[in-house]
Each structure stands twice: as C-alpha cells, then as structure tokens.
Amino acid sequence: MAGPMRISGLASGLDTETMIQKLMKAERSPMEKLLRKRQKEEWTRDSYREQNALLLELNNKVSKLRLTSDFTKQKVSSSDDAKVTASITKKNSTTQYDVSNVQLAKPGTGVSVKFKVSDDIKDSNTEINSSFDFTLKGNDGSDEVTISVGEKDTIESVLNKINSESSKTGVKAFYSNTDKSIVFTSQVPPTEENKSLVSAIQITTSSTDNKLKITNGEVKQSANDADPIINDFSKDQVFKGIVKQAGKATVNGVEFALDSKNTLDFDGMSFTFKDNIGVGDKNVVISTVKDTESVMTAIKEFVDTYNKVIDQFNNKLTEKVYRDFYPLIDEEKEAMKEKQIDKWEEKAKSGLLKRDSILSDVLTQMRSSFYTPVEGVEPPKNTLASIGIGPKKSDGLGSKFDYMENGKIHIDEEKLKDALSNDQERVIALFTNGSGITSGSDSFKSQGLAQRIYSQTNAAMKKIGEKAGRTGTTSDNSLISKDIRDINTRIKAWENKLKDKETSLWKKYSAMEQAINKLNAQGSNLLSKFGA
Question: What Cα–Cα distance (Å) separates residue 42 from each residue in 53, 385, 408?
Fold first, then answer.
C-alpha cells in the first residue's frame, strides 16, 4: 500500500520536511535508548563468552593433570634407532629389553622374465606381420591358456591378450619403451615346500621361428640352475622366484616370529625392526624411563594459562567505567571517522564486567586451591609450595606474597623436577587426590589441585553459560539473550509506532498545505473579480 501523498510547504512557506524530521527525532529518543541498551547487552554477552572461552582453555589444560596416568607416562629410548625402535602401548612389566638375532621378514617375489625385442619392432604399436600361437601358464594359475597372434597384431595388442587371461594364468606382461623389452611376471611367489613349480612361468610354442623377434632373454630374481638365456619360444622354460622369508627376533632371551611389517607386540610394547642383527652383532637395548618432561610441560602450560586467566579477569574486574561514552547509533556513526568510532567504542565497552561476581568468585576459589593444603598428604609436604608451585614472595624471608601480582603462580623448575623424579607419588596426590568426591567443603580439602581447579572452572563456565550463553549455539535461553529478544520486540513496536506517527504528521501538514492552497486560490479569484 502506498504511503500518504507528501506536500511540501510551498503554500505556507514552511520547511515541512525539516519540521517533521525534528519532531520525529524527539519521538525517536525512547527507541534510541533501546538501541543503545541492546548494543550494550550484546557487548556484555560477548565479553562473558570471551571469558568463558579462556576458562575452557584452562579447564582443558588442567584436565590433563587429573589422573594418575597423566603422571606415570614413560618414554622409550633405543641404543640403536637404525635397527630397532619401540613405543609403549599399555602398562609394561619391565624397564629394559635386550634385542638380538633379528632376521627381517621379506616378501616373496614371483619370477620376472625379460626378453629383448629386436630392432625390427620399432615400438609397441608396430604390426608383427605374422600369425602363430603360443601357450602360457603360471603354476599358480588354474589353466593353461593359448594366445593367438595375428598379422595385424602389435606387441601392445598381444600384451592385452596376455593380461586379460592373468586371472587364469597368474602371469602379466609389460612392455618397456626405454629398452624395448617385454617382461613376463608371475603374480604369486613360490613357497619353501615347492620352489621348483609354484609361481613359475611356462612359455611354449610349437614353432621354431622367431615369430616375435625376441632375442637375448634374461631372467630376473631367478633361483634355479637353468640356463637363463632364452633365444626363442621353441622350448619349454620354467623359472622360479624368491621364496618368502619369515622374520624372527629374540627379546630378553625369547625368540618371537615377526609379522610381515617386521613388528612385534610384547609386554605392552610395540617393537619395530628395521635391520638384521646377526649372531656376532651388538645387541640393541630398549629402555623405558619416567617421562618427567611431558609432565613438566603439561604443568607449565596449565600455569601459563592460569596466569593468563588471572591477568584478564583482574583487568575486567577493575576496568574503568566511562559513563559519558555510550553505544553509538547508526546516525552518529555516519558523522564520525572509523578511527573515532573505534576509540569511542573502546571506552564504551570498558568496565562492562567491573566487579562481576562470577569472575570474582572463581578467582577467589582458584587462589584458595593453590594455598589450601591437601588432606591425606602428610604435612608439611601437603602443599603445592612444597614441590615448587606457588605465588611469588615479596620479601627475602619468603613469608609474604607479592599481592601486586594478584595471585599469579610461579614454578621452581628444579624443585618440581626433583619431586617428579624422586617423590612422584606425592606429586600425584597433590594434583589428583579425591577424584571421586564432587561436593562439600570436606571434598575441597581432600581434593588435589587439578580436581579443585577442574571443578571450579566447570562451575564458573556453567554460570556464565546460564547468563550469556555459548558461542555457536542454535538455541540460547541465557538471561542476556532473553533480555536482547525482549528489547528487539520493543524496538519493533517502536518502529511501527514511529512509522504511524510520521505518517500522521505528513497527513496533517499536507492537509494544511492543501487548505492554504485553496484559500490562496479563492483570494486570487476575488481579487481578479475586483480588478475586473
């Protein structure tokens, strides 16, 4: 439906459009407040979600320190990586493995017979210009096949005929353009029980003519005593390949068979054998030791992330609030440059989470997790400080914390390494104790650090999710999102109300202009009559 006709102030001399714009600006003031409120709510929601993402990162780091198995990892070393390597697949019973007498497994190979093609045959597409038959059989095949060659055949077409019967004969043929040769290859290797027949290639022709002009044949990978020179197809020729070789290795005095990949699973270890070890060769020693480096890395990554949380949360809790800087609406942004908008909004966003109770509470709880002794561990070695993990001390006596750091944690690496190497059980207890207890003040005291932080971050993330939702969720019933939906409904109502108001004003001013025009017309008519 078309809107009302707008008549400007030509008759009245008034700037109707400007007057209506000013009137509407005053009318729009309540809706602009809603637009600013919605933007502030969106900023607050996004800031909460940013903090939640950081808590999730911390939660993921500390989850790698909650279980005993996280601290009992081992690493493997080999005295000769070029010959034997190993990895741990599950709990093993010993820490050292002596490897000797290794014979690598080798796959068997079928025979390959190579025939040189004479110079009369230019390439694989040259016609043979002769007709004859020959029979072909590999001893792994079920049938003997007769190959018929016609005058129009080429080497390529003959090879296609041979290869099309490979499912029966077990033999394939190839042509090499590089040295002009034909290679017949058996697909299945021989066995130890039957070296002379299995996987052999038999090529037979009744003609004594050199029909394919094949000369100087030579056998590759042959283990028989026959003359390897084939001058033509006038004789039956049988050649055998290499028999498959089983692999074996001796580990801690016990001989084991190897699989085809030269690997062995034994005592929670997976061994990979790369080279033979003869009777007179030096044995290879595989050793397993505590992997304190990976545990150190996991603890340092956790502490680094924890300190990042401390910094960011403290900044958010203490940010200055700039009350004169409010969210900008589109009309205001249009009058500003991009850099001006960025600087303005930086201050408008500042302090959105100032003194936030969720962030403040989780910081207090996590600090307490580091300071509170772990029940069940014998004092005075029942604190994280006893293994070199704790806040920085501000005085030389080491009795006061440096409160300027807001509870950031530092690691005495030498002290922690020593504890991991020589007092592993205590370190495990300080991190993992009480994994089955989930609530109550007593549970907190008996829990190790990782259990405490894991529970606290989970609880905080849940609270933030209830208040601000999670990024990427399709259904968001968080408190802030509900507020935003309510504001959107109110904005829509105001948009309709303002549209109706503007339409009403234009109707009134247009009617006034029409009335003035009518009066002016009547006056002009009277004047014209008097003038007459």
Answer: 16, 42, 30
Q: According to the model, what pLDDT value does residue 90 have?
A: 87
Give the residue with greater pLDDT, 419 vs 406: 419
Examine the domain organization and report whether 312 and 427 are in the same domain: yes
Contact 492, 484 (CB under 8 A): no
Q: Do 181 and 274 reside in the same domain of the chain?
A: no
Assign 46 a pLDDT band (cuts: 50, 70, 90): very high
Answer whether residue 214 shows pLDDT above 50.
no
Per DSSP, the three-state class of 48 is: helix
Contact predicate 149/158, CB 8 Å: yes
Of 72 and 505, more confident: 72
Q: Two tokens at 19? A: 């007057």
Beta bridge mates, 220: 112
Tell me the average pLDDT across 204-208.
Answer: 53
Q: What is the pTM of this model?
A: 0.69
**Domain interval for residue 386:** 35-70+294-468
Mean local confidence (pLDDT), 119-146: 74
| Burial classification of residue 254, based on how many CB atoms lie within 10 Å of its CB (0-12 exposed, 13-18 middle, 19 or more buried) | exposed
Distance CA 17, CA 36 (A): 26
Instruction: Decide if 234 contacts 207 (C-beta within 8 A).
Output: yes
Q: Quickly count: other Cβ atoms within 10 Å of residue 402's Cβ.
A: 14
Task: Copy the structure tokens of residue 501.
Answer: 């108001």
55 domain residue, yes or no: yes
Please, are residues 64 and 456 in contact by the beta-carbon 8 Å criterion?
Answer: no
Q: Which residues pair with 117 in a beta bridge?
A: 214
Asked whether residue 5 is domain-assigned, the answer is no
Any idea what the Cα angle at residue 113 is, between residues 195 and 198, rounded to 5°?
20
